[in-house]
Design brief:
Blueprint: E1 3-4, H1 6-18, E2 25-33, E3 37-45, E4 53-57, E5 60-64, H2 66-72, E6 76-80, E7 87-91, E8 95-98, E9 104-107
Parallel strand pairs: 1-6, 2-5
Antiparallel strand pairs: 2-3, 3-9, 4-5, 6-7, 8-9
Length: about 120
């Protein structure tokens, strides 16, 4: 379902050690919003929700809810280390267009609700 690059995995593991939360899983989701209709989200959680797809990547469980799974199939989480604006990014083959901030996208299935970046 979702791939996690070696660079992103290294950063995730570092964050988990830093927060002393080695038993948490990573939730990856899509929600309506952003300047293109959908926006990405990621957070650590201690347990999956009913209906989640659960995959283990290099010892970290990745949780994706049913709604988000349709938009994230084949996507890759990466970590970009750049002088200006580095961080986690998602490369999504289901995105028809993405906004310049890289945090929101439009899918071929349409949907979502367009809002200004950062909301």
């Amino acid at each position: 379902m979702i791939n996690v690059s070696d660079g992103a995995m290294s950063q995730l593991k570092g964050l988990m050690v830093q927060q002393n939360e080695s038993t948490l899983g990573l939730r990856v989701f899509v929600s309506p919003g952003g300047c293109s209709g959908f926006q990405y989200g990621m957070r650590f959680e201690d347990t999956p929700m009913q209906g989640d797809s659960i995959e283990t990547r290099d010892g970290i469980q990745v949780y994706v809810d049913e709604y988000s799974a349709q938009y994230l199939e084949g996507a890759e989480i990466d970590f970009v280390d750049e002088l200006m604006g580095g961080g986690f990014t998602i490369h999504n083959p289901n995105a028809v267009t993405s906004c310049s901030c890289g945090q929101s996208f439009t899918s071929a299935q349409e949907g979502g609700s367009v809002r200004a970046c950062g909301n």
